[in-house]
Amino acid sequence: MSQKLIVLLLALLLGLQPVTTDLYLPALPAITQGFGAGMGQAQLTLSALLLAFGLSQLVWGPLSDRFGRRPILLWGMSGYTLASVACAFAPDMAWLIAGRTVQGIAMGAGVMAARAVVRDLFQPAQGATVMSQGLTGLGIIACACAPLGGVLTDALGWRYALLMLAVFGGITLGLLAWRFEETLAQPDPRALSPGPWIKANLEIIRHPVFLTWCALSAGSYLGLFTFLASSSFVFVTFMGYSKTAYGFLMLSMSLSYIVGTFWCRWMLRRTSVHRTVGIAAILTLTGGVSMAALAYLGQGKDWYGAWAVMVPMYIFMLGHGVHQPCGQSGAVAPFPHRAGTASALNGFLMMLGAFFMGAWLGTHMDQPVFALTQGLLMWAVLITVVAWTAVQRHGRPEALTALTALTALASAATTATPRTPAEETAPTPSPTLSPAPAPTHSPAP
Question: What is the C-alpha to C-alpha distance for residues 177 and 175, in angstroms, rounded to an integer?
C-alpha cells in the first residue's frame, strides 16, 4: 500500500469519531424534543456510545493482534453500517440509545485498528507525522459533518442526518474491502489467552511512556468532548442560533484544528516531539483560561456572545492539533508487538473519561455555558501539567528509545518457550540470514 492510501484510510477510520458525534450533534436538540426526552437521556445517547466505544477496544485490540487488522476492520465497519441504519429508524429514545451503543462497539474496531496500523508500519517519530496527516484528514471530515448535520436536520429532519452515518460507513467498508492489505507481520497466537492478556495490559498500563502520552491524548480529547457534548445547548438552546448556523460554527472550529495539525508537522521537522508538545500547551492553557474568564466577566452582559466561546476554543484546538497525533502515536510506540492491545487500552481510558464527563455534564446543563467553561478549564490545566512535566521527562527521544528496548527485552524474556535440559546442553546452530521482506508502504516524506 502506498503512503497516500494509508493516510486516506487513516482519515476515514479516525474520522468515524467526528462523523458519529459532530454530524449527530446539530440534531440532538431536535431528537430530544421529538421523543419528549430530558437532557439526561439526550446526553446518554453520547455517553453510552463512548462507553461502548472504549470498552469494545479492550476486546478488539487482542483480536487484531491475534487475527490481524484486516478482518477486524471488515467486521467492525459492517457492524457500524448496520447499527447506523438502525439508529436512523429508531422508534423511541431507548431504541436509539441501544443503536448508539452497538454503533460505539463497532466504531471501536475501526479507530483502534487505525492507530495500530501506524505502529505496524512506522517507527515512533515517523508515526507521529503520519498520524498528524491522518488527523488532518479527520479535521477536513469534521468540517463537513456539523454543517451537513445542521442542514439535513433543518431541511429534512434528524433521521436523514443519522442516515448519513450509514452512508459514510458503507463507503469506508467498501474501500477497506477493495484496497486494504494486512499490516500485521506476525500475529500473536497467545493474544487471546487470559493470562498473557492480563499480563500484557498490566505491563502496558504501568509503563511510564504509555501513561504520559495516554494522559496527554485523553486530556486533550476530553477537552474537545466537553465542548462537543455541551455546545449545541450553548448555541442553539441558550443563545438561540439555528442548527445550520451552529453547524458552521463547528466547521470553523475544525478549521482551527486542521491548522494545528499542519503546525504540528512544521514543528516536528524543526524540533523534538516533547518540545513541540510543551509549546502547544501554552495555547491549550490560554484557550481554557480565556474562555472561563470571559464567561464569568460577561455574565448577563450584552457584549457576551458566540465569539467569547469560539475564539478561546480556536486557540485550544490549535494545541489539540499537536497533542492528539503526538499523544496517540507516543502511547503505542514502546509496544511494536502489542500495538493493538496498547491502542485499545489508550482508547478505552479516553472513552471511560468521556463517559464520566458526559454524566457530569448531564447534571449541570441547567447552565450550559458554565458547564462548558468549567470543564474545558479543568482539562486545559491537566494537559498543561502533563505537557510541562511528564512529557518533558518521558517523551524525550532518548528516554523513549531506552524504555522501548527494556520493554522488548522483558517481553521476549516472559514469552520465551522453556527449554528442556537436553536442549540447554545442545549446541546452538549458527543463524542463517534471510532477505528482509519488502516494505508494504512508501517511506514518509
Answer: 5
Cell triple for 315: 486557540
Mean of per-residue pLDDT scores for the chain: 83
Sign of the torsion angle spanned by Cα atoms 19, 157, 245, 36: negative
Measured at the CA of 118, the angle between CA 390 and CA 8, to 5 degrees, comes to 125
> 280-314, pLDDT tens digit by residue?
999 999 999 999 999 999 888 888 888 999 999 99
Mean pLDDT, to the nearest integer, of 388-414? Answer: 61
Length of the chain (residues): 445
Write out pLDDT tens, residues 198-217. Answer: 888 899 989 999 999 999 99
Calculate mean pLDDT across residues 353-380.
86
Cα–Cα dist 196/331, whole Å: 20
* pLDDT above 80: residue 107: yes
Question: Distance (Å, rounded) from C-alpha 260 to C-alpha 239?
Answer: 28
Q: Is 183 exposed, middle or buried (0-12, 13-18, 19+ CB in 10 A)?
A: buried
Residue type for position 426: A
* Region 3-181+193-403: CATH code: 1.20.1250.20
Which of the pair, 274 or 412, is modelled with greater confidence?
274
Q: 3-state secondary structure string, the chain? A: CCHHHHHHHHHHHHCHHHHHHCCCHHHHHHHHHHCCCCHHHHHHHHHHHHHHHHHHHHHHHHHHHHHCHHHHHHHHHHHHHHHHHHHHCCCCHHHHHHHHHHHHHHHHHHHHHHHHHHHHHCCHHHHHHHHHHHHHHHHHHHHHHHHHHHHHHHHCCHHHHHHHHHHHHHHHHHHHHHHCCCCCCCCCCCCCCHHHHHHHHHHHHHCHHHHHHHHHHHHHHHHHHHHHHHHHHHHHHHCCCCHHHHHHHHHHHHHHHHHHHHHHHHHHCCCCHHHHHHHHHHHHHHHHHHHHHHHHHCCCCCCCCHHHHHHHHHHHHHHHHHHHHHHHHHHHCCCCCCHHHHHHHHHHHHHHHHHHHHHHHHCCCCCHHHHHHHHHHHHHHHHHHHHHCHHHHHCCHHHHHHHHHHHHHHHHHHHCCCCCHHHHHCCCCCCCCCCCCCCCCCCCC
